[in-house]
Design goal:
alpha/beta, eight-stranded mixed beta barrel, five-stranded mixed beta sheet, 31 helices, 17% strand
């Protein structure tokens, strides 16, 4: 290494290499700038106090200000330098530091040359000590900046030597010269050591980087390579691995525009991918970049590359190109796409899942809000799907869901996206819903399409669909609010009988809140003793004598007053409260019936949820045993909905209850999913004819009369009794008698009675002329 290179007068063979070394020298000088500043200020203060009585205050103050100004300026120049370790610096940057050394040498030469110092005096000795310390501090602090150190130490040493020669102190002058030369030699050696160490570090780092990349090039699974361009963005030093990735010859690539190599066939057409355009912008602005992904075609196959690079500058700071690394990440991208698809698409149906539906809705709402438009969200629930799943099994149910997804997808256009939320719930996002008629028409088409029969594994399946519809941002300012609104609308659609769509209305939120508060009160109603039973008489149609009572549940809430059973019974079923409430009803009714005459029976309604629990048989047995009521006096009333849950074991529970001797009645026959198969498979003791048929028959509706006659004939052939509900007048009583009904129940014979009145009625004599 030549001292001319160390001082910044010339470069070595690698200009960029020496530019980085010079930046390291400047950075090292910056780190000790404050030390040099402190040494100068302390030295100046000591000198001022030393000559306070010997030199004019004006001279002394002016010199002190000069030293302070020069010292602060030098320190600020060092601290504000833009060069850092690892950067680049020019020769001029390093040579400019000589000015700082000269300025400090001139400032500190003044006391030696101008102030009156007598040879051998105490002031001369102390001044020499101060200057020696300053020269040593300068040699330490400015050692990396060899030229500045030589200027300061050499200049100040020369001034002192000249002064000593002038006054005839030749021995002191010789000693000073030797001291100065020693400091300069030490400084140069230290600067040389710093440069050597830094040069070794740079070379080692570059070697490690290159070796690491080259080693990866020889790995079979590696797809990394080096690339480099000149200032004109042409490929230079094309690596074999880079050429192989491009499926081109290295000689062919050398000198080609880098973008042309990557663009391939699209270079002539100008149809560049967004990633390639982003790369062009980076190269144009000469910015460092990393993790830049772009798509390109190699040998007719789409590949994905990831590039990273930094700009290169020469010793003059002039841009000379880019150097970087590239990777083929096609396989990683494919894996990431697969993971992303799994996270956002339903594995069974292939439709977008809940996450992607929510994201699509959020984007649709953002667009609607931006442009002042409207979007729509439909929540779809399959009707009677649970029955298919329970009776035919989950494999059939899964295939049915796939068929539903296919039909739903066929209805979607460019403006709509459908997805599966989970279970048998689907959703549709409509990005532009400004045409309300089109939104409603789509909802109707969805219902009609999904309600057509399905052929699945030789099974013809019939299901339906209910749709809840909400319009954003009218029905919700956020995706979550809009989904909630559509869910409330779906709930109303299912309440309306299913197979219909219902649009959101603001009062649905109010009703939902009322339901929530009502449910909270219902959960505590049993514990607080707010539940009680009323009993409605059931009489013999021919004689009018009392045969039993039907136990009817009533709820009086301190907060809501008397709550209708039609309101709280469905709520209890949804909230999973029907089983504890039903058990309380059964035990209370049995205990009360045990007080009645032995010929009077009690009928208790049982829900499908209760019969799905195998432990219900134990509940019935326990209620009869605890009350002492004989089995034949208990009658359980079930509706046809029980048989929609056959797969859950409801019929098996009923058989075990019948084996105990308990009577069974089929309630509301003809109003639901009527099937003669239920009657043939289950040992019912009676069939109850719904009040709607009785009321219609009393008005002369022929169909209702025919239905009652058919039910009576069917019951007689099966050895069952028939009970007509809702008989309110004497004419209706005579009509059902004429039609052959065996028992009657209704307001004509008695309203539901409190327990005390029911006890009194049970103990008295009834006849056909009495109507309570």
């Amino acid at each position: 290494m030549r001292f001319s290179q160390l001082l910044g007068f010339r470069d070595g063979d690698d200009a960029a290499h020496w530019a980085r070394i010079r930046s390291t020298q400047l950075d090292a000088g910056r780190q000790l700038a404050l030390l040099l500043l402190c040494a100068n200020l302390i030295g100046a203060a000591t000198t001022v106090s030393l000559f306070a009585t010997q030199v004019s205050a004006w001279w002394l103050g002016g010199w002190a200000m000069l030293v302070a100004a020069v010292s602060v300026t030098v320190a600020m120049r060092r601290l504000s330098t833009r060069h850092r370790d690892g950067g680049y610096a020019t020769q001029a940057d390093l040579r400019a530091t000589a000015i700082e050394g000269v300025a400090l040498a001139v400032a500190w030469s003044i006391p030696c040359l101008i102030f009156n110092t007598h040879p051998g005096s105490n002031s001369a000795y102390v001044l020499w000590m101060i200057l020696s310390v300053l020269m040593t501090a300068g040699a330490v602090a400015m050692a990396p900046l060899a030229l500045a150190t030589i200027a300061f130490v050499g200049g100040l040493g020369l001034s002192v030597t000249v002064k000593l020669v002038t006054i005839g102190s030749f021995a002191a002058a010789c000693a000073t010269s030797i001291f100065t030369v020693m400091l300069i030699v030490v400084c140069l050696n230290r600067a040389r050591s710093l440069v050597v160490i830094r040069a070794s570090q740079i070379a080692l780092a570059e070697r490690d980087e290159t070796v690491s990349l080259l080693l990866r090039e020889f790995e079979e699974t590696s797809a990394d390579w080096l690339w480099e361009t000149d200032a004109a963005r042409r490929v230079v030093k094309a690596s074999p691995r880079f050429a192989y990735a491009c499926r081109l010859d290295p000689v062919t690539i050398e000198g080609m525009p880098f973008l042309q190599v990557l663009a391939g066939p699209t270079w002539d057409t100008g149809e560049f991918t967004p990633g390639l355009r982003a790369l062009a912008d980076k190269l144009k602005t000469r910015d460092s970049f990393r993790d830049l992904r772009l798509s390109l075609t190699v040998d007719g196959e789409e590949r994905w590359w990831e590039l990273a690079a930094s700009p290169r500058f020469d010793e003059n700071g002039s841009f000379c190109g880019f150097r970087g690394v590239g990777s083929d990440v096609t396989e990683q991208r494919a894996s990431a796409d697969k993971i992303n698809r799994m996270a956002r698409f339903d594995t069974l149906t292939g439709l977008p899942n809940r996450l992607m539906v929510n994201e699509t809705l959020a984007r649709a709402m953002a667009e609607a809000d931006k442009w002042g438009g409207r979007c729509a969200f439909m929540m779809i629930d399959l009707d009677r799907f649970k029955a298919v799943n329970d009776t035919l099994g989950h494999p059939i149910g899964d295939r049915l869901l796939s068929r539903v997804a296919e039909r739903l997808a066929q209805l979607m256009g460019d403006n709509e996206t459908c997805g599966r939320l989970g279970g048998d719930e689907f959703a549709v996002v409509m990005r532009d819903a400004t045409n309300s008629s089109a939104v409603e028409a789509l909802a109707q088409r969805i219902i009609e399409t999904l309600s057509r029969p399905y052929e699945v594994d030789a099974n013809t399946l019939y299901i339906g669909a209910s749709v809840g519809l909400a319009i954003g941002p009218r029905d919700g300012r956020t995706a979550e609010m809009l989904i909630r609104s559509a869910d409330l609308a779906l709930y109303r659609a299912k309440d309306a009988g299913r197979g219909v769509y219902h649009a959101y209305e603001p009062e649905l939120h109010v009703q939902a809140e009322e339901r929530r508060v009502l449910e909270m009160a219902l959960r505590q109603a049993l514990e607080r003793g707010e539940m009680h039973l009323h009993y409605q008489p059931v009489v013999d149609a021919a004689t009018g004598s009392l045969t039993g009572f039907e136990a009817l549940l009533r709820w009086h809430s301190p907060q809501f007053g008397d709550v209708s059973p039609a309101k709280f019974i469905p709520l209890a079923e949804e909230a999973r409260l029907i089983q504890p409430i039903g058990e309380w009803v059964l035990r209370t009714a049995c205990a009360e019936a045990a007080r009645w005459p032995s010929h009077v029976r009690v009928a208790v309604n049982v829900s499908a949820d209760q019969l799905q629990n195998p432990g219900f048989v134990t509940v019935v047995t326990s209620a009869l045993a605890d009350s002492g009521l004989s089995v034949e006096r208990l009658e359980l009333e079930v509706t046809e909905s029980v048989f929609m849950h056959e797969g859950l074991g409801a019929t098996k529970v009923l058989e075990r209850i019948l084996d105990l001797g308990v009577r069974l009645s089929l309630d509301d026959f003809g109003t639901g999913y009527s099937s003669l198969g239920y009657l043939s498979r289950t040992r019912f003791s009676s069939i109850k004819i719904d009040r709607s048929f009785v009321q219609s028959a009393s008005r002369g509706v022929k169909e209702a009369i025919a239905i009652i006659r058919a039910v009576v004939a069917l019951a007689q052939s099966l050895g069952m009794a028939t009970t007509a509900e809702g008989v309110e007048t004497q004419a209706e009583h005579r009509m059902v008698q004429d039609l052959g009904c065996t028992k009657v129940q209704g307001f004509y014979f008695g309203r539901p009675l409190p327990v005390e009145e029911a006890r009194a009625v049970a103990g008295r004599r009834w006849d056909s002329d009495v109507a309570a």
